[in-house]
Amino acid sequence: QVQLVQSGGGLVQAGGSLRLSCAASGRTFSSYAMGWFRQAPGKEREVVAVISRSGGSPYYADSVKGRCTISRDNAQNTVYLQMNSLKPEDTAVYYCAANPYGSNRYEYWGQGTQVTVSS
Question: Which SS3 state, helix, strand or coil, does residue 74 take?
Fold first, then answer.
């Protein structure tokens, strides 16, 4: 069983920056593709960014492309989401999730952290 613990959310003014962190338990972190998702009130959950097991081939939603960077440190069992030039429309609960090797879905999820961007 994998536990994902998130940190780094909070309140920030438009144009500011935040870095979200997601630390995983276990000894097989490097076998997980990792993703960041978000869900705003009244909206469906959407993918924000995805990173491969080795850290290559990152994917970004068009809404955050150029403003966000996903990275991982397998030695620390941690994935990060650096968010710059934040906009009020980025306000949401952000979740990290792990997709184990051989799985067809994200099986493990963090507890979620609120990001609020004020205008």
Answer: helix
Contact call for residues 49 and 70 (beta carbons, < 8 A): yes
- pLDDT for 41-86, tens place per residue? 999 999 999 999 988 889 999 999 999 999 999 999 999 999 999 9
Q: Which amino acid belongs to residue 53?
A: R
Name the amino acid, one letter, at 115. Answer: V
Query: What would the two tokens of residue 51 be?
Result: 């990173």
Euclidean distance between CA atoms 81 and 70, whole angstroms: 5
Residue corresponding to tokens 């144009």: 15
Give the type of residue at 57.
S
Strand-pair category, 32-39 with 46-51: antiparallel
In this structure, are residues 93 and 113 in contact, taking their beta carbons and an 8 Å threshold?
A: yes
The tokens for 61 are: 């939603």
